[in-house]
Amino acid sequence: MKEKTVFELSVAGRKGVTLSDCDVPSKPLEDLLGEENLRDSLPMPELSEMDTVRHFTALSRNNYSIDNGFYPLGSCTMKYNPKMNEAIAKMPGFAGLHPLQFEETIQGALELIEHLERILTEIAGMYACSVQPAAGAHGELLGLMMIHAYHKSRGDDQREWVLIPDSAHGTNPASAARCGFKVKSVPTNSEGLTDVQALKRMLNDTVAAFMLTNPNTTGLFEKDICTICDVVHQSGGLVYCDGANMNALLGIARPGDMGFDVMHFNLHKTFSTPHGGGGPGCGAVAVTKKLEPFLPTPRIERARDQYRLNYDRPQSIGRIHSFYGAFLVAVRAYAYIRNLGADGLRQVAEMAVLNANYIRSKMKDAYEIPHDRFCMHEVVLSASHQKKTCGVRALDISKRLMDYGYHPPTNYFPLIIPEALMIEPTETENKETLDAFCDAMLSIAKEADENPDILISAPHNTDIGRLNETVALKQLNVNWLTHHKEKKDA
Amino acid sequence: MSIPENLKYTNSHEWLQIDGDVATIGITDHAQAELGDIVYLELPEAGRVLQKEEVFGTVESVKAVSELYSPVSGEVIETNAPLCDATETINKDPYNTAWLLKVKVSKPDELNDLMDAKAYSKLIEE
After folding, report:
1. What is the CATH number of the domain that holds B22?
2. Residue B66's closest chain A neighbor by CA?
3. Which residues of A touch B83 (CB under 8 A)?
4. A:B CB pairs within 8 Å
5. Choosing among A166, A467, A469, which should be mutated to test the B contact, i.e. which has the most B CBs within 10 A?
6. Residue A442: exposed, middle, or buried by beta-carbon count in 10 A (0-12, 13-18, 19+)?
7. Nearest residue of A to residue B124 by CA position?
8. Where would I find the H helices in A10-82?
9. pLDDT tier at B123 (50, 70, 90 boundaries)?
10. Which of A412, A415, A474 shows the shortest C-beta gap to B39?
């Protein structure tokens, strides 16, 4: 049953609390505030305490989260965040710090950040790292600003283009454009990988950088990565690694060894810190030696057993975040990394890749798999066959999954795969969970053949059926009062 | 899928109707179906001179943002500006009321590069 809003549940005069009698003489409100300041245009809902508790509890039960079910969106949205990380981040020594405390009173916090930056540098196979950026796209912007500063420092001012594969995350071209670069799209070849010949033809002395996600968004490892980095470097450009898919590589392969010059990690993806509701996250950026002078200030440095914040870095691009980024996110990531250790991190990648390939092998008779070979941590299916034969699209399959009690996977991304369904199970799911999800997907494929209408009109078992996304985009109204007024006026 | 016989088509799913030296341009039924509900449209100003295959606008649906490419070179003489406030028309009637641009064709030879309905229908079947 659809839960009413608090305004609809409201009954005039109903109260949630009873205040004790006032022990000073009471005065009418008009006398206290002045009649001109009183208005009745903002009615407050009037409910009993019990009604209020039931209302919000009912709403909370409509949430779907990884704590109550499998999430095929994977690390991209939220992989499992061990509860221990939360407990550690809430320790008063971390949570009670004030950002304006003197350096000598926050030595432990500075040590943690400095240590985390060193660990991330090692995982990246690079030279230095900053955990200041608050998100992946923020990290991309920082990386590109440093690339810009690097070329400028060499008098290489004409490099105005950034090349980006057509399979890339939308943030890549957005960050490049935000940084003042012009963007050109590099095609993907029939194997689902960067078309190296096309890339070569596009490279010249006006190209500042090539941005690449590895493994790329089709879930495939860019096996020509060393050649790619070589040809970009030969033309004087730099190579940026979007580390969104590091879950597949942890402890196994390092972007720095592949030839990348700069990368961002999403601590809130790979290192299991929360990022629901838009943050705070952490898009830590790691760089090779030649980009190190451009890292944002302040830098945390250690001198004679004391950590200090160094602002004296003349080539730095400046600050990218107030204070030193989202500190408690760094604490959670540090706890996660230290708890797993090097072997544990490697196992994360191994299990993530194994789980994705398990799903791929179970799906391949029911769904088209555009690049059907070993994938990395995610597998991209296509509903093209269903669309052609029974008029069922990726969106309908996603909606139907909700009837089976699952959150839908990413759909229609990457853009180069028609009717894409991207599934990332992550490392923490066991075989029983994966089997149950696969059974649902197979059952849906069967329904598509036999009774497509049940998919096209899905979901049926949720409180609210299929939403009109166009109206949601063009006439979004989240204010009940104006909505109610519009309805009354109509 | 509707593919009118009297129109010309591009690889990037625009249609074009010729009337003397004026070409009316829009996006195809296939394009609107692939995009899904269209929520935003950006068109150029009249007077802008376009080269063949130049980006002349943007169309955004609930699924994706796509660029619009001019099938021919020439000057924009009229745009269907009211469409920007009624983008659902593109989904409903892509070939008639939802035309996007009228262009005065400067290189008529370019029209020979466009596909007829039969070739376009083959393209989208692939």
Report:
1. 2.40.50.100
2. A415
3. none
4. 14
5. A469
6. middle
7. A388
8. 29-33, 49-61
9. very high
10. A474
Chain B contact set for A415 (CB, 8 A)? 64
Fold of domain A348-471? Aspartate Aminotransferase, domain 1 (3.90.1150)
Say yes or no: A450 contacts chain B, CB-CB below 8 A.
no
Confidence of residue A481 (pLDDT cuts 50, 70, 90): confident
* Distance in angstroms (rounded) separating the CA atoms of residues A166 and A267: 25
In a domain, B3, yes or no: no
- Are residues A469 and B37, on separate chains, in Cβ contact within 8 Å? yes
What's the pLDDT tens digit per position in A316-374? 999 999 999 999 999 999 999 999 999 999 999 999 999 999 999 999 999 999 998 99
Show the DSSP H helices in A20-164 as ranges: 29-33, 49-61, 83-89, 92-95, 107-124, 136-153
Is residue A210's pLDDT more than 70?
yes
Cβ neighbours of A470 in B, within 8 Å: 37, 39, 62, 88
Structural domain boundaries enclosing B24: 8-120
Please report the residues numbered 366 through 425 in chain A whose beta carbons come closer than 8 angstroms to any beta carbon of chain B: 395, 412, 415, 418
Q: What is the dihedral of CA A88, A94, A95, A99, to 10 degrees?
A: -150
pLDDT the model gives residue A487:
78
Whole-angstrom CA distances from B110 to A163, A198, A260, B23, B104 are: 29, 26, 43, 12, 13
Is B43 within a domain?
Answer: yes
Residue contact B39–A473, C-beta within 8 A? yes
CATH ID of A83-339, from 3.40.640.10, 3.40.50.12780, 3.30.479.20, 3.40.190.10: 3.40.640.10
In 3D, which of A261, A294, A264, A318 has the Cα closest to residue A148?
A294
Does residue B126 fall inside a structural domain? no
**Which among A245, A212, A216, A244 is positioned nearest to A229, based on CA atoms?**
A212
> For residue range B19-53, what is the model confidence (pLDDT) as tens digits?
999 999 999 999 999 898 899 999 999 999 999 99
Domain contains B66: yes
Q: Report residue A129: phi and psi, to 5°.
A: -150, 150
Contact B37 A470 (CB under 8 A): yes
- Which chain A residues are closer than 8 Å to B88 by Cβ? 470
pLDDT digits (tens, 9 = 90+) for A15-73: 888 888 889 988 998 999 999 998 877 778 999 999 999 999 999 988 888 888 999 99
Number of domains in chain B: 1
Domain boundaries, chain A: 6-61, 83-339, 348-471
- pTM (2 d.p.): 0.88
Contact A470 B63 (CB under 8 A): no
| Predicted-complex ipTM score | 0.72
Nearest to A159 by CA among A144, A172, A174: A144
